[in-house]
Design goal:
Elements lengths: L9 H13 L3 H8 E8 L10 E2 L1 H14 E9 L3 E3 L2 E12 L3 E14 L2 E8 L1
Parallel strand pairs: 1-7
Antiparallel strand pairs: 1-2, 3-5, 4-5, 5-6, 6-7
Helix pairs in contact: 1-2
Amino acid sequence: MTANKTAMTTQKVAARFRALAQQEKWFEIQDEFFADHVRSMDPENSPYFGYAEGKSTVRKKGEDLVKRIEVAHRLYTTEPIVSGNHFTVGRETDITVQGLGRIQINQIMLYEVKDGQIVLEQFFY
């Protein structure tokens, strides 16, 4: 980011995130907002996903899941709630995944923003 360009506020990042999430453009969100050192955390002992660190590793985590989705029954993301340098969204996911069958996850997704970039995504389900 250049010195004369000010970073987006957390509110603006959250608004743009919401617009892209409504279109299921998750990789565009990663391209646009994820910091090189971003961390992605799922609940400990999650049967579905794990921990990833670094933009390319986090992207691979997402790509590995997307490749295995056979049917998307319902995908929905709520409006963001912003507080300080964090925002959260609710996410309902009902998908059939190769090797796992049909899974339904209702989760809270927490994002930390620093200098206009997402440095942490953490999932609670």
